[in-house]
Amino acid sequence: MLRFLWRPLASLNLSLILIGALTLAAMAGGTLPQLRRLSPAQLDRFQNEWPVMWQVMDWTGLSAVFSSAWFYALCWLLAANLAAGTAQHLWRIGRWRQGRVAPSVRLAGEGPLPERVARHFASAGDGEAIVGHGILGLFGLPLFHIGILTIVVAGTLSASVQFSTRFEMGQGEVYSGGGASKGVAEGADFDIDPESGYAFRLDEAHVEVRDERIRELQAYFTIRERGQPPRQEQLLVNHPLRIVGQSLYLDKKFGYTAAFDRLLSDGTVRRLHIHFEVPRAEWGKNTPLKRRDMVALGDAPLFWHMSFTPGEAPRFALQVTRDGAVVYDGVLGPGEEADLGSYRIKFLGALPWIGLFMVADWAVRMVFVGYVVTLVGFLLHLLVLPRRLRLVRQGDRWELEGWAVRDDWRFEAEWGGGEALSKQGGSKSA
Amino acid sequence: MKELGLIVQGVVAALYVAAAVLLLLRVRSGGHLLAVRLAFAGCVAHAALMAYRWWVIGQIPIVTRYEDLTVDALTMVAVYLAAQWRLPQLRRAGVVPLLVSAGALVWAMSYSRVSVPFDPSLRTNWLIIHAQLNSFALGGGALAAGAAMLMLGEKQPSNEMSAITGSVTAWAFFLWAAMVAAGSYWASLAWGRYWGWDPIENWSFATITSYAFALHLHAKAKWRGRAWAAVALLPFAISLFTTYGLLMVMSSLHSQYVFQ
Fold first, then answer.
1. In what helix (H) or strand (E) does residue A198 lie, and over which residues does it extend?
2. Residue A105 pLDDT > 90, yes or no?
């Protein structure tokens, strides 16, 4: 029963069918509209313009190729085929090394060994002598296939364990994991979140945009991790920061923060930051940035209509309404206050903010190990050609057998193929 | 000076075409050596052109569509010249790399030659590693396609030619896989994810699997002749679409960098 299942599972024909199907699937997924890439408006438009095609795509899973059940089945069947084929390959390597497969070349003769045979064998006596080199090359393809299996397994793990979160931080803000709580602090005077074991403060954000293209994007952080002294780090694109097993990256979103002190009736003061995203074309131009939000601080929610002009002399135009009645309508400069009923706000000025995201994925390293193993294995297969020669001498007669891999055309050119027999001295060979 | 650059580019393309024509004609080996010399002369002038551009713009010229096409063209010819020097059996396989390179050079002329300073995303050695592996992969693929065309031109291709074509195809596969691996690692540094099923990632994956298909087919005893050679042309065609055609019809993460 096992042999009945094993042979088709390890077969080259199955590999060809599966690899061909995978190629077509990748092309389909890279060309047809995919749910994960379409915005709601784009999806709507496509469904209206191509209703029948969309139905067919949806039914066949072509609208979401890479998350469809058949794609997963294809990948795992290929992985099983790969594992079976690799096991079979390793068994054949063992047989090749023992000379238990038909040789690529066989020569025989009498008298002294021809020079091209003698140079491989130091000993001149009767008996058997074996030389082999490049045997490591035999393991190139199995290593390559093991690397692919590693990538498949690690990729599946990574998809299930990966966690990421996006957020914005203004200068002076502190972020700690767990509940993603944020606050504001001066310098390194902030607490570590007990659950996540870390907290970090954005000390400075530096953004430079010219001709609508980002020229500089950097951020400086003070990082506190449990059991370690505070440290200061610079975050650049392509150089994520490692914080307690997670990686912090720069997003390409940025803008200005309107900073306030919120003065409560009991005398407490809390910092309030309102972020305004700035389009690249507007960066540095001090164009008024508009925003409307329902702000639920204190007892009743207030509706804020905001217009914020950053720059050297920032201005914050604010109209606040509650249940349709205007609570406040004015323009604030730095140091000026507005009374909103249950609390007052004092406008402090403008600060830059940047977008960030954190990713936790312990399995990704296995993926990269898989890449390295795959490439090293295939390079070994390309560069190191295994060859094995066996010479048997008995008195005046000698017989040589040679083994090489199928596409070792240089070996074939050197030795010729097939058998060559000579009855009188020397050998008849190519 | 800009016009001189265009003229040199045109002359280089003409040298490549002349070399390809000589290789196509069934002349004695002397004619083929002349083809190699023409290709070499073109390659030297081409390299000088790219070195000059590098010096003028102050950064490696491998990002814009113009630079992409011209550097790939240079690498294709350089790979061919190195391979035929090592293996004279591949001399006549240069028809494909030379004609594709000439076509790339002419097409590049239709793109703006303006250069822009690198975004922060591109200021990393991984740009050079990823982009150059792409160029070398295309070079290997073009040479493999040329060798496959040679096989198609023979009534009964020899075992040696089949083995050499298989070997060159395997190198193209390796280089393409290395390019994708490098790009994936770079993506993990820049975007926090090593794979996102972006169109260009999908088609790069399709290119790898198409090469894998051709190589697995080559392992079957009955598929080592002209039929296999015809199949072996497909991965190169797919790689050309992935590199140059896809971004013309679809948007991708790469679009923002290539079409600056």
1. strand A198-210
2. no
Residue B130: φ, ψ to 5°: -65, -45
Give me the interface pTM, i.e. the ipTM: 0.94
On whether the CB atoms of residues B13 and B102 are closer than 8 A, the answer is: yes
**Residue B225 binned pLDDT confidence (cut-offs 50, 70, 90):** very high
Answer yes or no: do A364 and B212 touch at CB < 8 A. no
> What are the tokens at A128?
């058997």
Chain A residues whose beta carbon lies within 8 Å of the beta carbon of residue B125: none
- Range A28-45 average pLDDT: 88
Alpha carbons A168 and A162: distance in angstroms, whole number: 20
B interface test, pick of A62, A407, A411, A415 with most B CB neighbours within 10 Å: A407
- The DSSP-derived string for A260-329 is EEEEETTS-EEEEEEEEE--GGGTTTT--EEEEEEE--SSS-EEEEEEEE-SSS-EEEEEEEETTEEEEE
CA torsion, ordered B17, B18, B23, B27, to nearest 10 deg? 160
Chain A interface test: which of B122, B129, B209, B217 (most A C-beta within 10 Å): B209
Residue among B177, B194, B216 minimizing CB distance to A375: B177
- Closest CA relative to residue A317, chosen from A356, A344, A347: A347
pLDDT in tens, B43-99: 999 999 999 999 999 999 998 999 999 999 999 999 999 999 999 999 999 999 999
CA–CA distance, A356 with A250 (Å, rounded to integer): 5
- Cα pseudo-dihedral A5, A7, A9, A15, rounded to 10: -160
Dihedral sign for Cα atoms in the order B182, B186, B191, B193: positive
Closest to A16 (Cα-Cα) out of A5, A4, A8: A8
How far apart are the CA of A417 and the nearest CA of chain B, in angstroms? Answer: 11
* From A30, A214, A406, residue closest to B202, measured CB to CB: A30
pLDDT in tens, A241-298: 999 989 999 998 999 999 999 998 888 898 899 999 998 888 888 889 999 998 887 6
CA angle, A346 then A352 then A358, to 5°: 115
Backbone φ and ψ for A69, nearest 5 degrees, come out as -65, -40
How many other CB atoms are there within 10 angstroms of residue A239's CB atom?
Answer: 15
Nearest CA to A274 out of A252, A293, A250 is that of: A293
